[in-house]
Structures are given as structure tokens and as C-alpha cells.
């Protein structure tokens, strides 16, 4: 295997995916490449991935490397941060059998991950998932004790101008299969007119489908300027000590924002705000909903996510469930009735025609003759 191409690098894969061009090599530092990151690189049509970290650490079966290799994108794995720092943006490099060459000099190497190697690593990761799940549960309990104020009313919910009361709220995260899920939700969105909440990049997901977000919630690290300008309200997720790094970016665009200081993830506070402002139903799209999702997020325990769902559970439903249960109100019987209503006056007009009347009489006479035979 020999690849010669231009290099783009970034410590955050989601940022790199937005600016890398087709045919280039992606240099990342991403332990346990997740599904969303991998899909973004596939969509960018890159040629190769060089990872400073382990693409599959073995803690759990992350699906990112499988997605990359199944799309003919090989990975040169675990090359180390020294190589990451040495290589510069927009350099032309050669990668041959796991060796990284610049200007004729080998500057590093890593394990070449193809589809077969990834399959074997994932198999071993499945064998280890019990250990990782035990660790996850222990961490969840530990963090839940610290963050229990989220469901005990100790967390101050900021004042917002968006009206949630009595409405459906669709919280969109650019997570697993978000495009398929949004596609399936179009009829629901059109008919129910829910409050559209984009969590960081989820706001751009809404724009992709032609919808402007009513609210954007997040730390503003992965949402576009276009989405921020399109939103009716912006909520910046701040640390519990009040620091809000994302606020500066919003203000630099000449926009106003509400600051929400809270532990946990931005999707947690997006749902919590909807619940506290008396939304009728909260529909979660692309959010964390299963064991692998939680392990991929990487935050110890994801306790806040567990606590928030514990509190709002009576009003929360996953978008995939809605897409299965929800059917358009335009039933078949209504379609048939509409067709019949349209045909009826046409038949009346036709029947009044002298020629048509003569034809009907002839057919009637012929039918009588046939019955007598």
C-alpha cells in the first residue's frame, strides 16, 4: 500500500472533517474513533487516516474504524504525538506500508489497519465489554452523587424567550444516523410544528433539511456561523463555575446568548430546559440512547445524562420510536374520498352529454339482448 497526498491535521476530528478536501490524508489524535467522526471523514472522501492515538483501544467495540475500512479508507494507527507535532498542515507526504515519509525521510510509522485487522480488534473489544461496563457503572454512581442537584431542583434554569409550554420539542444532536432519522421525521415536523432545538452541530443538521433552529444549545465548538445567525435563541453551555468559553464566539458575531451553567452534556441541559418550561413531549434525535453510545461519549459515567433521563422520562421519546409509531394523518380512506369527490362532478357532466346518453342506451339494449340468449 502506497499513498502520496496532501496532509490536513487537527486534534478534533469533527473540525478537520469540515475543511479537509477529497483525496487528502487526515492526521488526527482520536482514541477510539466513533461512528459519527468516521462518517464525517467518509463523506469528505479522504484517502487515508493517520491517527496519533489508538483507533481501537479495546475498551469497547467502537464502530468508527469499521466504517472507515469498509469504505476503503485505511488507517495508519498509533503513530504517536511526536509524529503529529512534526508533520505540518498542507505538506505532501508518502505513506507506504505504515511508514510515513516526508522529503525522502521516514519520520514515523504505525500499525496498518485494514478491514480484517479491524474486525479482529473489534472482536477482542467485545470480549472486554463486561469489564468496561462495570467501570462505567461505578463511575456513574460516583458522579451521580455529585450531580444529583440536576434532578433535585438545585440547578438554576436561565430565563428564555422561547415558548415551550404545551408544545412538542425536537432535540437534534448530530449523532448516529441523524440524517436517516431526520428524513423519517419530516412528516412529523411538518404537521406537529415542534420547537426545534439543535445541540451544537445538530443545528447544522436542521439546516441541511431546510429548517431553522428555534434554539441552539451547546459550547459552540462544532456549530457553524450560519446556524448561529439563523437561530431565534442561543444558549451557551457553561461550566459550573460560570466560565463560558463559547460566549465569546457568539458575541463576536454580534449575537446575544443565554448562559446556562450546569454539569453534564449540552444535550442534557437542552432536554432539561424543555422539561422545566413544561414541554408536552420531548423527542430526542441522534442523542445517546444505548450502551455503546454512552461508552463512546467518553465522559466518566455520563451520570448527568442518566439523571436527566431519570427526571424527564415520562415526557421523553426517541425519534426512531416516533418515526415508527407516527403515521401521517392523511389516511388511505381520506385519499379515496378525495378522489371520489373529484370524480363525481365529472361523471355528472359526462352523463348529461347526448352522445354519452345514446351510448349508455345502446349498451343497455345490448345487455338485455345478451341476457335473453
UniProtKB/TrEMBL annotation:
Cross-referenced Pfam families: SteA-like_C (PF12555), TPK_catalytic (PF04263)
Domain SteA-like C-terminal, chain residue ranges per copy: 320-368
Thiamin pyrophosphokinase catalytic domain segment(s): 193-233
Transmembrane regions: 334-353
Keywords: ATP-binding, Kinase, Membrane, Nucleotide-binding, Transferase, Transmembrane, Transmembrane helix
InterPro entries attached to this UniProt entry: Put_SteA-like, SteA-like_C, TPK_catalytic, TPK_catalytic_sf
Protein name (database record): SteA-like C-terminal domain-containing protein
Amino acid at each position: 500500500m502506497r499513498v502520496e497526498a496532501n496532509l490536513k491535521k487537527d486534534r478534533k476530528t469533527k473540525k478537520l472533517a469540515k475543511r479537509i478536501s477529497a483525496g487528502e490524508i487526515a492526521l488526527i489524535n482520536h482514541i477510539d474513533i466513533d461512528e459519527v467522526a468516521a462518517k464525517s471523514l467518509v463523506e469528505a472522501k479522504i484517502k487515508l487516516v493517520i491517527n496519533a492515538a489508538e483507533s481501537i483501544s479495546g475498551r469497547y467495540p467502537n464502530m468508527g474504524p469499521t466504517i472507515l475500512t469498509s469504505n476503503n479508507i485505511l488507517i495508519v494507527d498509533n503513530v504517536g504525538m511526536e509524529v503529529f507535532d512534526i508533520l505540518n498542515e498542507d505538506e505532501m507526504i508518502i505513506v507506504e506500508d505504515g511508514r510515513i515519509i516526508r522529503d525522502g525521510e521516514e519520520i514515523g510509522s504505525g500499525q496498518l489497519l485494514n478491514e480484517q485487522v479491524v474486525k479482529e480488534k473489534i472482536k477482542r473489544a467485545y470480549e472486554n465489554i463486561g469489564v468496561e461496563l462495570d467501570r462505567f457503572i461505578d463511575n456513574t454512581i460516583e458522579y451521580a452523587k455529585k450531580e444529583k442537584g440536576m434532578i433535585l431542583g438545585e440547578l438554576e434554569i436561565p430565563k428564555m424567550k422561547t415558548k415551550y409550554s404545551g408544545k412538542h420539542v425536537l432535540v437534534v444532536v448530530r449523532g448516529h444516523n441523524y440524517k436517516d432519522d431526520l428524513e423519517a421525521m419530516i412528516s412529523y415536523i411538518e404537521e406537529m410544528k415542534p420547537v426545534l432545538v439543535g445541540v451544537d452541530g445538530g443545528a447544522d443538521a436542521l439546516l441541511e433539511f431546510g429548517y431553522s433552529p428555534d434554539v441552539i444549545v451547546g459550547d459552540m465548538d462544532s456549530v457553524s456561523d450560519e446556524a448561529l445567525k439563523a437561530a431565534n435563541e442561543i444558549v451557551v453551555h457553561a461550566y459550573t463555575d460560570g466560565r463560558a468559553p463559547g460566549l465569546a464566539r457568539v458575541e463576536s458575531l454580534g449575537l446575544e446568548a443565554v448562559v446556562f451553567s450546569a454539569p453534564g452534556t449540552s444535550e442534557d441541559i437542552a432536554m432539561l430546559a424543555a422539561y422545566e418550561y413544561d414541554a408536552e413531549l420531548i423527542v430526542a434525535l441522534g442523542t445517546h440512547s444505548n450502551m455503546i453510545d454512552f461508552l463512546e461519549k467518553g465522559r466518566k459515567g455520563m451520570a448527568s445524562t442518566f439523571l436527566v433521563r431519570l427526571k424527564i422520562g415520562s415526557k421523553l421519546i426517541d425519534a426512531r420510536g416516533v418515526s415508527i409509531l407516527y403515521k401521517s394523518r392523511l389516511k388511505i380512506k381520506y385519499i379515496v374520498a378525495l378522489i371520489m369527490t373529484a370524480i363525481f362532478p365529472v361523471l355528472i357532466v359526462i352523463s348529461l352529454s347526448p352522445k354519452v346518453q345514446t351510448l349508455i342506451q345502446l349498451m343497455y339494449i345490448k345487455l338485455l339482448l345478451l341476457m335473453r340468449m
